[in-house]
Amino acid sequence: MNAPAPAAAAPPDPLAGLRGLHLPEMVGAWPPAPGWWILALLMLASLIAGVLWIRRRRRSLATHALREFDALVARGPADQDLQTLATEIAALLRRVALARFGRRLVAHLHGPAWESFLEAQRRKRLEPEKSAEFTRTLALAPYAPSESFKRETLPERAALVAAARSWIRGIA
């Protein structure tokens, strides 16, 4: 009897150990690529530079305005007509407000509107015990006739000068 010959052992399939098709792992959001770090640093640096530029510009405005204010006060004698002094201070405050807030907001203001603007800025930035009379004096001084500028309704020269100086410091 002839026994069938054992079948030759089939060679192992070389592809049997391979995995099926698969996608690569998802790319994570962290850590960001170096380009994003550079962009973030540039944005931070520009933000800091902008803030410093704005602060320097405001400080420069206050410095120049206070220098001009001190020259204006020193130019006139202590017994100078209060209406003249108030008129000159009002012109300076208007220039400071124009530089700080822009023409669109300030240029058209006069009379009661200018007075309320001065008062609103005074309330925001100055101590509450400062005299509020200086806003009315500064708003009316350039336009009021000398006779109607009554001495008893006016603040004293020192109070007017102190309030105006504080207003310039606070606004700029």
Short description:
This protein has helices at residues 34-75, 82-101, 103-106, 112-125, 133-140, 157-171. The protein is an all-alpha fold and 172 residues long.
Notes on the protein architecture:
The protein is mainly alpha-helical. The chain has a domain at 61-171. Helix content is 60%, strand content 0%. The protein has six helices and no strands. The chain has helices at residues 34-75, 82-101, 103-106, 112-125, 133-140, 157-171. The longest helix has 42 residues, at 34-75.
H/E element order: HHHHHH
Rg over CA atoms, rounded to whole Å, is: 38 Å
Fraction of residues in helix: 55-70%
Structural class: mainly alpha
Largest sheet: none
**Number of E-state strands:** 0
Tally the helices: what do you get? 6
Question: What is the percentage of strand-forming residues?
Answer: under 5%
Defining traits:
rod-shaped; 172 residues; mainly alpha; 0% strand
Secondary structure layout plus pairing:
Layout: H1 34-75, H2 82-101, H3 103-106, H4 112-125, H5 133-140, H6 157-171
